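Lay summary. Proteins are chains of building blocks that fold into shapes, and those shapes determine what they do. In this project we predict the shape from the chain. Here is one chain we studied, written as its sequence of building blocks.
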Amino acid sequence: MKFVSWKPALLCAAAAAVIAPFTVTHAQNAPDGSALFDARCKMCHDPAQGRAPNRTALAAMRPSDIVDILTNGVMQPMASGLSGADKSAIANYLTQSPDAHPAPPPPPAAAAGGRGPAQAAAAPARPAGVDKMCATNGPITPSAGDWATLGVAPDMKRYQPNPGLTAADVPKLKVKWSYAMSGGGLPTVVGDWLFVTNRTGKFYAMDAKTGCVHWVVDAAARTTPNIVQNSLSPSGWLTIIGERTRRVRAIDAQTGKDIWQSDSLESVPAAGITGTPVIAGDKVLVPLTSGEEGAAGSNTYECCKFQGALVALDLKTGKTLWKTKVLPEDLKPFKKNAVGVQLYGPAGGAIWSAPTVDAKRGTVYVATGDSYTEAPTKGADAIVAMDIATGKIRWSNQVTENDNFIMNCDRATKPANCPLPEGPDHDFGSSPMLFHLKNGKDVLVVGQKSGQVYGMDPVSGRTLWTQRPGSGGALGGVEWGMGGDAERAYITISDIALQFAKVNPDVGIGPQSGDPKPGLYAFDPATGKQLWATPAPKAPCKFEGDRSREYGKGGCFNAQSAAPSVMPGVVFSGTTDGWFRAYDSKTGKIIWEDSTTSRTYDTVNGVKGQPGGSIDGMGGPTIAHGMVYVMSGFNGAAQTGGNGVNVLLAYSVDGK
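And here is the predicted shape, written in a compact code that computers can read:
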């Protein structure tokens, strides 16, 4: 198989929107879930493409959740023309409900490439567990050490100044409790309340110390919850989440009851919200992204009509106040493809990550994705600054021109919509970080999938310095995130596509080249000077249900693509081989490590023998009140080291 882009599962959902509606039935005229899956879903999920969940991940979901995603979520275009019975048949087939067809047997286990235990092939779906409800639901009480959004501050540095533990305590960290869930993201913590969403659309409020559940709602949520004190909510505590329906939802954080829901923020069916909506004063700033890169793989698709945008909502009502697209050019028809289908552009500039708020300047910064067409644009692969009050663009700094990309253009038979020239897919997947320097000046630090890191002037957008710690590629380079403190910017490098190619030369990885340089790097944000570099260690791992066999013949890959998090003296960072480590922030020396795949977990919600897996994705660790939380098993961009059902691990000193 050929390697494809890292973009989320909505890419493949969009690709399926172009398939003509039809229904497959049994002889008894009941919908055939197996045949429907093969016709509508297999192209993206078996084997999994990009970040689309594989069969094992889908099997771990509830049938009702799959039906909901097909009906209301990013897979709605894929389900065009399907009846309710058709959707249920697909869901039952995938989850092996009693009325479903039997699943094909899993392939035999593959060797571990000489670096670890044998890899399990397609592990059977594990039980989802039963929520252990808390006996009491005390009030949400804020305190120093809360981690109430993607970090503690809107600068996106993911720095916790009041961690509740010291650097000397870190080597004594042990798992206190664990919780099995499908595709869970970054938890947020206020007082002794923990909030987390997962891939099934569930939104949990939990006890941060024990893992019992205060409430759980079906929220169609995929983004990290923001938790804020606000009188709009009856309890005085409000949470904001982005949903797969392209809507934003406000919920009472104490009770789980709805406050408001926005209208759909984008008309393009393949659009979505992956970056966390951020609260700035009386506004909610919502980044919009798209899966048109996948839909454009069909010769009959009118590529492309989505233009990335940031939307400001009224915090009190959810009403749209302004919407600013990041591409400065108007969308127009510009030519027809080889089969006569009209093409549009410029398109693209998706905003995959959360916006960064600069309250002092009244500015918000976003990082944009690549272009989908060859129609020229200055807004793709750029950092864009906007006025928070009006949405007016203050400046835009495009770092890579003509990065025109859709899926499957690396195949022998190219789609008719492939742009010329074809770009390397080097867009931005992580939020800019805002540093306040000791000399009184400020600098934005941003990382690109090319492996390049930039320092930019937040006033003018001018590039101040550049460094390239990674070789880069479609899977990074800098993929999901960065971290920082007052003195250093910490950059994680993935370069996993190059690792795949080293092990299996048959894997297509696009035009990038060079040696993989996975690891953690520290830079002076003022000058860009590299302060230290710690390569990711090669270490044993054990995966269940992962896709590493397809890319690398069963090897353990140590890409450092997940976002890191920082506390005084320590940087926490995980790798795709399931290792979770702590680094001395001054020297880069590893001071603690734990293989999350070296054992299984008996979880709070009653799952026995739950495995760990890859540490990947936007989330990264959460540091709050003497504990550190991380999701193990996330089937992220690389689709290696996942296991369908993830496990949220809660570490404390000595496990107490």
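What the prediction tells us: The first strand starts at residue 173 and ends at 181.
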